[in-house]
Structures are given as C-alpha cells and as structure tokens.
Amino acid sequence: MQPKTIYKSLIITFLILITEPHQVFAFCRATEQCQGMGLDPNTICSPLDDETACRSNGCCTWSPDIIMHPPTSLMPTDNSIESTNTPKLKIPELQITLPGLVFSDQNKIQSITEGDKTFFYVPWIGEYIKWLYNYSIGIIGLLALLAIMIGGLYWIMAGGNASRVSEAKSWISAAISGLALALTSYLLLFTINSNLVKLPSIKMMLMKKIDIEIPVLSGGSESSDNISGSQVGCYGDCISATNLRPINSGVAGLACYGTQSSCKIEHSTYQKLVTAAQKANSLGYKLIVTDAFRTCAVQTDLWYKYGQDPNRVARPNCSNAHLQGKAVDIYIQSKDGTPYKKPYSLYPEGGPYDLGDFYEITLLKKIMIESGFIRYCREWWHFQTSMPNIPCYDPIK
Length: 397
Hints:
Layout: H1 3-18, E1 25-27, E2 35-37, H2 50-53, E3 81-83, E4 111-114, E5 117-122, H3 124-156, H4 162-192, E6 202-206, E7 244-246, E8 254-256, E9 264-266, H5 267-282, E10 286-291, H6 296-305, H7 321-324, E11 327-333, E12 339-340, H8 358-370, E13 374-375, E14 382-384
Parallel strand pairs: 8-10
Antiparallel strand pairs: 1-2, 3-4, 4-5, 5-6, 7-9, 10-11, 11-12, 11-14, 13-14
Helix pairs in contact: 1-3, 1-4, 3-4, 5-8
C-alpha cells in the first residue's frame, strides 16, 4: 500500500468519526427567537418566526448566525425556574493524564428547578469529546507535517529521477489535501452549529430521595393478639435470646416438632407449658408444640404471603405474642400416638373455627386454660399467656 494511501485512510477514518448526522430541534414562537433543543442553555437560534423559519416538525432553519445570549422572552423567571444548591459532584479521574485536558470545577456547575424537578448541567463529557476533536486535529496536523517532510526528503534524494520526484510530490500533495480536508470539515461543522464540535453540557435530573418504610422481612403466623393494631413492621427480634429457653422434649407429656428457633419460649410461659404437659400426661395424652417463638423476619414473611390480611395473619410487630415468646401453636396426641386434628398454624387458609374432633380440642382448651393460657378464638391451636389487644371470645362454650 502506498504511503499516501495510508495517510488518506487515516483522514477518511477521522472524518467518519466527526461527521455523524445531527439535527437541531426547536420550539418556535411568532416574532420570538427559536431555542434549539440539545443546545447549550445559553445558545439559541437567530430571530425567527413561525411562518418563515420553522418547519411543521419544529426543526429550526439552519443558520450560521448564532447569538450567545438568550432573549428576554426566554429568560427564566422566578415562577418557572429558580436557582438551587448544586448537587455534590466529583470531577472524573482519568486513568491516564491527557495533555491539555482540564475539566471544569465542580463548584461552578449550576442547577435549576423547573416546577418540582431539579436539573443540573454536567460539562465533563462534552469537554472530553471537545478535547478529542482538538487533539485529533493536532495529530492530523503532525501527520501532515511528517508527510510533507518525507515528501521533501524523497525530492531531495530523487537525483533528477522523474518517478521519485513524482512520488515526492504525491506525498506532499496528499499531506496538504488531508490537512485542508480535516480543517475544512471542522470549520464547516463549527459554522453550521458550534455545538457539533463543542458539545453542550448534559442536562441531568436530580433524583429526590423518597423515604419508604419497609419492614424487615420477618416471619408471620396467624396469631392473633394484635389484629386491631395498625402498626406493621418490627426491627430486630422483640425478645433477647437470654430471655428464651428451649422447649425440653424430655418433659413427660411434651414434645416440640418445630425448628430449633421456633422450639423456644419465654421462661414464665415455659413453666406454664410444663404444667399443662403434666396435666395431659396424667390423662394419658401428650402435647405437641409445632411453633412457639418467631423471629421478626418469619412473621413479616407470612404477613405478606397471606395478603396482609389481619383476619388471617397477625401484623408483624412486637405486640405479637409469638414474637414475644409467649405463644404456642399446639395440638394433643392420644395415648397410642395418634394426633387429634393437627393445627394449621402456618396455613391460615386451613380455616378458623374448624374445630374437628370436638372432644379432644375441648380437652386441649381445658388443660391449657387451667395452666394459665388464653386461647385465641379463631384458632383452636393457638394459646398464649399475654392478653390479646382485642376482645376475642372463644366460640366453644
């Protein structure tokens, strides 16, 4: 490939990069100036009117006559745009130092408020691209100078050889043509619209922080004691680990088939549960606990799982007896190990008032109440030692 061909290829590549099509849109008013969309806020078109200068699509007529100050009619007013504090911005840190590139001071960046929205103009990308334009022109100038020097050297060394002189002329001619083409392209773009080579600041909207109270995902149960309350959400567990103790399966007439976390209960409630287990054991029955203490996360999960319906799932807050470690979901088991009506503690759709085997459920109620528990009226399996926040009368008489 001839040297002049290589040089011309470099020029063409650069021109492709800088001559992408642009179009300036404008909002035009009769007898007023036409402000181009995408232009610098302080750059507007020459005085135009709807009839002679603005097409139906709102495109402002191309004009080299650009003024650098907005007309009075387009100046912002106190009612429409007001100055606000500039957002905290940080000047970009480049991985390499680029000679001649200096970004604007972030303290000079302006922000404005339009209605209830705040905008600010960030110039750094435009400054970077402008530097690329100028640096590319400089590189092309250096390449052109180098090509001219090479052509001159060939001419000197030609020794009267016509072919060598012709090659030298080709180098010099290609260098001058390429440099002229690059400068002409730059000047043409600048004349059409200076913002094609000097990119305006990017208008960015400042997003406002919206505080939304989202409860920590915490578990849920159908429990009962806070149905009338409106608070939803608990942050951290409602009782410390030192105030909980595991439900001892070694106690006669008592077992817990829940998780390691759910098979814990508050100390005083545990003593009442042991009393109930002793009563059941004396009658030939066994109490099976399926759920006791719940973390805040478990309660909230169930609250959202069942549609945030307080008639099915207790709200996740610290008035909840399960979260206090003062409630148990429990059923009674016969002498031969056959359970009587397992509870639906984790499945509220199992149905409140579904009393099943009347005798065993009534017996469970009798044992638990005599031991100091209160039964929640909508769930035959739920017993607690704290008083519910609402009157809830047991349907069984």
